[in-house]
Amino acid sequence: MSVIGHLIDGEIITDGGRTQDVYNPSTGAVSKQVELATVATVEAAIASAQAAFPEWRNTPPIKRARVMFRFKELLEQNAEKICAMIGEEHGKISHDAMGELQRGIENVEYACGVPELLKGEFSRNAGPGIDSWSDFQPLGVVAGITPFNFPAMVPMWMFPLAIACGNTFVLKPSERDPSSTLYIAQLLLEAGLPKGVLNVVNGDKEAVDTLLNDERIKAVSFVGSTPIAEYIYKTANANGKRCQALGGAKNHAIVMPDADMDNTVNQLLGAAFGSSGERCMALSVAVAVGDEAADALVSKLQEAMKGLKVGAFCDASNDFGPVITRAHEQKVSGYISSAEKDGATVVVDGRNPQVEGYAEGFFVGATLIDRVTPDMESYQAEIFGPVLQVVRASSMDEAMKLIDDHEYGNGTCIFTRDGEAARYFSDNIQVGMVGINVPLPVPVAYHSFGGWKRSLFGDLHAYGPDGVRFYTKRKTITQRWPSSGVREGVSFSFPS
Ligand code: NAD
Fold first, then answer.
1. Domains of the chain by range and CATH?
2. Is there an atom of ligand 1 within 6 Å of 204 CB?
3. Angle CA(368)–CA(369)–CA(371) in degrees, nearest 5?
């Protein structure tokens, strides 16, 4: 069985250490093994990145951008191969994998503009004969730690921009679906990136802790679940590193009585069940305002869900695929059972679906649960599966309070035809990314991505303008060239 290794100093290596099984979630079979990097392997990756930094930092931004241009082309040329790798190990259907890859490529396109992004600020005559300017310098070696659910896109939120800004990078992708990430990193080297500028270590907590505790790592970008995000943020900060740690979510959609119900249902289906609900922006709660709207919503959803198809990643006619592991399948099913036990109504039950030819796959069918209340465990937790819960509220204020009271604040959306209500909602809701009749308001690459509350630890959001700030430090230079021969006096007052 093939063993997936690491990319260190331009070479794929294995270190003979511990390994972990990688599954094909559609069949339930082990397809490969991934090596879990030893401390020595992680240190070798950091040393390689450290050695590559001085030359890369001094490479003109336009030359760094050219590498990114070639990288973008290689990603496009190899898109089908990358999506097949994603499908085999993650389980998402090819059209969904293609969407993820495209959003990743858009971050590479943004990084191609790095000469413009790093231009800095200049003030002539800040004082008599004095000019002052700020420029944005790279930090050094930066680490990225990423989750399983977007093995292509989330790493590309990080390393293209960090590297374009002049940093060198050590990436620790998810050990559950590592192949596409490693291949993408190899494409960047093929595009002309000097060896050592990007290193990839596969691994688990041991690799992560080695990165967090090494003083050569200057900053850490993390995306994953909230408990780990909090741990990463606190540990990185205690070790004097800059850190942005993006965590989990529970994204609510408010459905107002005036919403176009048929369109709302279609939008909700894709946003709740696409990628089996394994998206940090998945809409997992619909808050219907008023019983009439709730009844209409539930009956239309129930009807529409009859046509949904869960199945293997390799059949493009499927709407969504399996969840990532057997354990996760059981966890998701357990939340459906707990909602039922707590008194909610399971309207469409996706537990134990029959998928012909894939009896051992990790499937959960689309599930709809009505009359969920905020005290239920299934409401409080991030289920991360194809489960849409409906909560009934009597007013928009009550619906907004539910969202504000929830521990997560990643994304949210309102379906309405009332502009005033939509504006009030977007102005006041305590969530980082807001959609108005847009179910998955994932910011485009030239904005930045990040939630509020316990969905993000840190000050700066991921990618876009915040990404440039995160991956650079400001230096401000004040310059004066006095005329030779002019004697200058001594002053003890503060310069003004
Ligand atoms: P996870 O937290 O289990 O793992 C994320 C990364 O952390 C992986 O690389 C993993 O190896 C590492 N890790 C796991 N346990 C660790 C530990 N004890 N110590 C140190 N490192 C550890 O997350 P996941 O299951 O891979 O991904 C799903 C989660 O990610 C969901 O909660 C989802 O909402 C979240 N997510 C958030 C965003 C966002 O932008 N906010 C985007 C995608 C996914």
1. 3-247+455-477 (3.40.605.10), 251-436 (3.40.309.10)
2. yes
3. 145
